[in-house]
Amino acid sequence: MTDSPTITLGAVNLDADDPVALAGFWQAAVGGEVSPGPAGTAFLQGRPGGFSMFFQPRSEPRPEHQAQHLDLDVPWGSRTREVERLIKMGATHRWDVLGEVPWVRWTTLADPEGNLFCVAEHPPAEPPA
């Protein structure tokens, strides 16, 4: 018998031009508490049930292609309101995907430093027939 894995997500790490400012954006976006760290770093301790983030100074130019991004879920019917809130905070709207598949619709945004992330909503499960 194989033991079940006990791995959990510790933190999402991002390079940033201004780690403290970017941590402030993400704190306002997802909650939690920011703690400044050494050498211009910042740590966002996630709220219960959320996730943490670590921001460190960028040491190289931003790659043209972003290999990973965050997919953030919101309750059905609240995506538009959340997207508007995030744009008011400094995010940039990139595109919407609303009818590609029936189980999710999402909006792709960029944070103030250009890191892509999605805000997704999933329809409520239909009751069994």
Automatic annotation (TrEMBL):
Domain Glyoxalase-like as annotated: residue spans: 12-119
Entry-linked InterPro entries: Glyas_Bleomycin-R_OHBP_Dase, Glyoxalase_6
The organism's place on the tree of life at top rank: Bacteria
Alphabetized PANTHER family for the sequence: CONSERVED PROTEIN, HYPOTHETICAL FUSION PROTEIN
Protein name in the entry: Glyoxalase-like domain-containing protein
Lineage of producing organism: Bacteria, Bacillati, Actinomycetota, Actinomycetes, Nakamurellales
